[in-house]
Amino acid sequence: MEATDAAARTRKRLAEIEERVPWGAVKKSWVQRRSEWVKQLEQTPDAAALGPLLLSLENALKMESFSSAWTLHREGWRSRVVSAAHNLPLLEKAAIELEEAIQWDRILLDRGGRPLVQLSAGAACGTPVPPPLGEHDADAPPEPPEGVPRLAVNIMLLLRLLGVRNYEPSVVAMLLELTHRYTSDVLKDALVYSRMRQLRRRGANGAALVANEVVELQDTKLAVQGRTAHSWTPPPPREVISQQAAEVNNEPMPVLSKRPGICLPKPEACEPCARHLVARGIDEGMLSDAEDEAK
């Protein structure tokens, strides 16, 4: 039972490695042999045939797809695979070594620096490292690959222009989510401005507004101006904060009463000061009544 599980794990890992490689950009000749290799992998009855399949998979990859240290360990790795024909743990370890030796950040990009895999926030692939951006690419962004939104490519180009070379794929996904949220908030504000404009211009009722919801360019501009004025604003300069702190510290702190209880600030510093005055009047009235009763 344990040997069967080990063989299944090794077979699954080989299938994942082969499926993960963009063969159309790495080695187009493998596409013709791919169906036969996959068929042999699925129909392999024993572990002895997994070794040759692993060797053929490694041989199909170009040496540029591996790290520079792979050339030093390649012969030893191949000899271990041949000797581990009936040793599933060693064969599984060799498959892991092959997967770690592949430079995924290089083969998952085409010659133009565009990703060849679908963008995913939790992608297991290596971090794409785009090449330096040329002037032509900056003026005319390349067409996004299948499964990648155009906005994601624009974000990657923007990161490259800012000098960011190393980032996880989840960074692009998070920036996409931030862009979508900010855009939706701006459009919601623009819709509110559009409704208010129609109410003021036409005096329409609520049902008519819902039926004729039209967001114009001026509504969107007003929403963007409102968001820009109240969002992403920097804090006050240090000099301003220091001056305000000095003005506050120059005023002496109020003398605390020796009686236990709640100490309120000055009346002019209390927002609901009217309530305090009313409460104080009630207290004075209660005290006067108590004095009359005592007399």
UniProtKB/TrEMBL annotation:
It is found in: Nucleus. This is Uncharacterized protein. It comes from the Eukaryota. The keyword Ligase does not apply. GO terms for biological process: RNA polymerase II preinitiation complex assembly. Belongs to the TAF9 family. The keyword Transcription applies. GO terms for cellular component: SAGA complex; transcription factor TFIID complex. PANTHER family: TAF9 RNA POLYMERASE II, TATA BOX-BINDING PROTEIN (TBP)-ASSOCIATED FACTOR, TATA-BOX BINDING PROTEIN ASSOCIATED FACTOR 9. GO terms for molecular function: protein heterodimerization activity; RNA polymerase II general transcription initiation factor activity; transcription coactivator activity. Its main location: nucleus. InterPro entries: Histone-fold (IPR009072), TFIID-31 (IPR003162), TFIID_subunit_9 (IPR051431). Keywords: Nucleus, Transcription, Transcription regulation.
